[in-house]
């Protein structure tokens, strides 16, 4: 099950590994993604802190870590095809996999209905 941040990132927990990316809403707001500044494998991140950035033809946006932990893998496909984020933001366009240090943080994220309501209310 995917969960979301109000800053438009998502995380999907599978055991101790969270796959992380930006929401479909976020990629729609960004427009055509032209570059993804991927985080470094092995780097430790804290929930709520910037861990990478995504650049589009319109602007650059910080991406916040939904959970704390260590970056275990990055989506290397984004280096040559950053537009994967536009095609499949919540699928093949994932950004990183984080080994979660505190699984309880996942419980603090918004479920899909709460996130969709937040997006609708903020338009």
Structure write-up:
It is a single chain. This protein has a 6-stranded antiparallel β-sheet with strand order 1-2-3-9-8-5. The two termini are about 25 Å apart. It has 5 helices and 9 strands, in the order E-E-E-H-E-E-E-E-E-H-H-E-H-H. With about 120 residues, it is α+β, with helices and mostly antiparallel strands. About 25% of the residues lie in helices and about 35% in strands. A hairpin with a 3-residue loop joins strand 6 and strand 7. The protein has one domain (about 1-100): OB fold (Dihydrolipoamide Acetyltransferase, E2P) (Beta Barrel). The chain is globular and about 35 Å long.
Give the helix/strand layout.
Elements lengths: L1 E3 L4 E6 L2 E6 L1 H7 L2 E5 L6 E2 L4 E7 L3 E5 L4 E6 L2 H4 L3 H4 L8 E5 L3 H4 L4 H10 L2
Antiparallel strand pairs: 1-2, 2-3, 3-9, 4-6, 5-8, 6-7, 8-9
Give the key terms.
6-stranded antiparallel β-sheet; globular; 9 strands; OB fold (Dihydrolipoamide Acetyltransferase, E2P); alpha+beta
Pattern of helices and strands: EEEHEEEEEHHEHH
Number of E-type strands: 9
Overall structural class, as computed from helix and strand content, comes to alpha+beta
Indicate the CATH class.
Mainly Beta
Question: What's the arrangement of strands in the largest beta sheet?
Answer: 1-2-3-9-8-5
The percent of residues in helical segments reads 10-25%
Overall mean pLDDT: 97
Number of domains: 1
Can you tell me the CATH topology? OB fold (Dihydrolipoamide Acetyltransferase, E2P)
The end-to-end distance, rounded to whole angstroms, is: 25 Å
